[in-house]
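Good day; I would like, with your permission, to put a structural problem before you. The record follows directly beneath this note:
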Amino acid sequence: MDIDIRTALPAEFGALGDLTARAYLDDGLLDFGESDAYLHELRDVAKRAAAAEVLVAVDGERVLGGVTFVPGPGPMADIARPGEAEIRMLAVGRAGRGRGIGEALVRACVERARGTEGRTAVVLSTQSTMHAAHRIYARLGFVRTPERDWSPLPETADITLLTYQLTL
C-alpha cells in the first residue's frame, strides 16, 4: 500500500472536509441529509485541527481519507474521560475504499494514544449502520461499551451512537 498517514496540512483541509461530508452523505449516515447540522462540523477541518490532530491518508497528493485524533477531554471530545484519547470523524472516500485505509487511520490513532502520557484507553462513538468500521474496531481489539452509548440529539430518540473502547 503506497498510502501515507500523516497530519493534515492546511492546504488539504478543504479536500478532507468535502471528502468527509460526502462519505457521510453517500453512506446515508446523516439523518437530515444535506440539511443536517452535523454536515458543517464534518466540513470544518480547520476547527478540528485547532483543538485536536487531524490525520489524512494520502496517495501522493490525493487525499483518500481522514480521522480526528483527540488526545483527551476537551472541546473536540464527545465521550473521552481523563486518561482516554478519542477517535472522531473517520471517513474514507470511495476511491480509497477496500485498501485498508480506514484500519490504517485507526492504527495511527492508537499509536498516538500509546505515545501520549497518561493515556490508558482509546474510545470512540459509531453509528449502528457502520458495519465496516465495527469490523475494523473488533479486529484491532476494541470492545463494545454499551453503558456509554449516547445520543447527540437527546430530543431525537432514534439516534443512538454505539461506543467502543480499546484498553492500552
User: Anything to note?
Assistant: Helices lie at 13-26, 38-43, 45-51, 101-114, 131-139. The longest helix spans residues 13-26.
